[in-house]
């Protein structure tokens, strides 16, 4: 590829299982590099493993990429359609077999390849293999110059005995035919690169520029498995993570912006991304960091937008009752309040339960640890009496805070004497939003009903 060639990168997964979250990181780096250079991001499906490749896996790969916002410029539109984006197709390798055959016949004709035991092998020229000074070299955009002695490479299979070419060959041909300028992939492919350069040289093709990104490790420094269910991309969706959090988290696994900034949108990442700032060292998949980012994005997302992510998958009819519409005002008010305490979308049911169900608790929980039954009774009675005087229009949280503060002062109580039992009476929980916020959301009638129920519970012998 010459310097004037437009940047074109590819993400080429095999549809043999779920889309691994580490593969999404690879797709992301390709996507960011393409957008940074006003280039194209190609999706190519490497489905030559006929025994394990499925259209179901292909569909999941596409769904996972779309969920995190990595839309491709060229590639299949979906797994069930022959329609494609761009003019570089077909994009499934099983639909490109005739293209591969042209190159295979060329190598057989020139003697660069030969048949043995039904398979086709690439021949390493004897002159190169016998020269101890001969090396296969390439410049890695992340790791610098990489080379191996040619004498260490034996002839190798490029087409299996069943006639299906191996990815070593198909990748080289596809990258050339599709005008791929940069191959950005995991460092576990470095060992394949020398063989692919040999194939390209044999066919008289220029090689793309290579960049091998570092591996992702588990917290115990073990390699993340490609077929472990808990690392499947759409499983993170099911666990209640937001796409923006996933993208922001993955971008920092091996890359750094060179500043202290840690929050980026996808467009901002594309603007800031540089392959030179991708490190060589393995990155650790820190779930605590992902949770921190997810909680941040949940807090920052407006309730009406967050509702579309939450419903219907993260609503429980059994625990919360009938599902509301995404624009239900009470639901949005509740969501706007509890999202401040959410880490994952799955947290909503537990945090919102007392807004939809009557709380359950014992009298003992109503009494603050530094208070007494008597002072708690005084606090609840005074609160009920005072709140009955508040207009039916109810009040803002700020006004209700002032009302509660005046009750504390008028009855010579400590804050814990009143705020604790009011919180428990309204939510049944030790930890919840502030009492004035609970009062404001629940409304006058429901709030008074719960406070009176608490008074009954406390008076039980």
UniProtKB/TrEMBL annotation:
One of its GO terms (molecular function) is ATP binding. InterPro entries: aa-tRNA-synth_I_cd-bd, aa-tRNA-synth_I_codon-bd_sub2, aa_tRNA-synth_I_cd-bd_sf, Glu-tRNA-ligase_bac/mito, Glu/Gln-tRNA-synth, Glu/Gln-tRNA-synth_Ib_cat-dom, GluQ/Sye, GluRS_core. It is found in: Cytoplasm. Its EC number is 6.1.1.17. Residues 317-455 form the Aminoacyl-tRNA synthetase class I anticodon-binding domain. It holds the Pfam family Anticodon_2. One of its GO terms (cellular component) is cytoplasm. It comes from the Bacteria. The keyword Cytoplasm applies. GO terms for biological process: glutamyl-tRNA aminoacylation. Its main location: cytoplasm. A motif ('HIGH' region) lies at residues 13-23. It catalyses: tRNA(Glu) + L-glutamate + ATP = L-glutamyl-tRNA(Glu) + AMP + diphosphate. Keywords: Aminoacyl-tRNA synthetase, ATP-binding, Cytoplasm, Ligase, Nucleotide-binding, Protein biosynthesis. Residues 7-115, 131-291 form the Glutamyl/glutaminyl-tRNA synthetase class Ib catalytic domain. ATP binds at residue 226. HAMAP family: Glu_tRNA_synth_type1. Catalyzes the attachment of glutamate to tRNA(Glu) in a two-step reaction: glutamate is first activated by ATP to form Glu-AMP and then transferred to the acceptor end of tRNA(Glu). Belongs to the class-I aminoacyl-tRNA synthetase family. Glutamate--tRNA ligase type 1 subfamily. This is Glutamate--tRNA ligase. The gene is gltX.
């Amino acid at each position: 590829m010459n310097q004037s060639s437009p940047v074109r990168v590819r993400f080429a997964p095999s549809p043999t299982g779920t889309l691994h979250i580490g593969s999404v990181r690879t797709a992301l780096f390709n996507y960011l590099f393409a957008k940074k250079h006003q280039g194209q991001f190609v999706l190519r499906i490497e489905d030559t493993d006929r025994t394990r490749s499925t259209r179901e896996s292909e569909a999941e790969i596409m769904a996972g990429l779309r969920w995190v916002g990595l839309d491709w410029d060229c590639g299949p539109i979906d797994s069930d359609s022959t329609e494609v984006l761009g003019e570089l197709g077909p994009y499934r390798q099983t639909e490109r077999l005739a293209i591969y055959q042209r190159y295979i016949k060329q190598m057989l004709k020139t003697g660069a390849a030969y048949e043995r035991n039904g398979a086709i092998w690439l021949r390493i020229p004897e002159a190169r293999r016998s020269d101890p000074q001969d090396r296969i070299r390439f410049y890695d955009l992340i790791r610098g110059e990489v080379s191996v002695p040619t004498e260490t490479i034996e002839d190798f299979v490029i087409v299996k005995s069943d006639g299906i070419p191996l990815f070593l060959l198909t990748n080289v041909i596809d990258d050339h035919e599709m005008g791929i300028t940069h191959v950005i992939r995991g460092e576990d492919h470095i060992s394949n690169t020398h063989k692919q350069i040999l194939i390209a040289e044999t066919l008289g093709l220029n090689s793309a520029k290579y960049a091998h990104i570092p591996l992702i490790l588990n917290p115990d420094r073990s390699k993340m498995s490609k077929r472990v269910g808990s690392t499947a991309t759409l499983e993170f969706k099911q666990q209640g993570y937001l796409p923006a959090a996933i993208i922001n988290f993955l971008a920092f696994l091996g890359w750094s912006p060179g500043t202290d900034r840690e929050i980026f949108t996808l467009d901002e990442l594309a603007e800031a991304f540089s392959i030179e700032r991708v490190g060589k060292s393995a990155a650790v998949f820190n779930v605590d960091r992902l949770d921190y980012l997810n909680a941040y994005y949940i807090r920052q997302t407006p309730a009406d937008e967050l509702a579309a992510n939450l419903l219907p998958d993260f609503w429980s009819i059994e625990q919360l009752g009938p599902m509301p519409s995404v624009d239900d005002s009470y639901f949005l008010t509740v969501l706007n309040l509890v999202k401040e305490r959410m880490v994952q979308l799955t947290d909503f049911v537990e945090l919102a339960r007392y807004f939809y169900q009557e709380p359950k608790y014992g009298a003992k929980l109503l009494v603050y640890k530094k208070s007494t039954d008597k002072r708690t009774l005084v606090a609840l009675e005074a609160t009920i009496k005072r709140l009955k005087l508040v207009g039916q229009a109810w009040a803002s949280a700020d006004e209700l805070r002032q009302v509660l503060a005046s009750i504390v002062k008028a009855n010579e109580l400590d804050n814990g004497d009143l705020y604790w039992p009011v919180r428990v009476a309204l939510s049944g929980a030790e930890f919840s939003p502030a009492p004035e916020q609970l009062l404001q959301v629940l409304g006058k009638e429901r709030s008074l009903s719960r406070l009176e129920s608490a008074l009954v519970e406390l008076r039980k012998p």
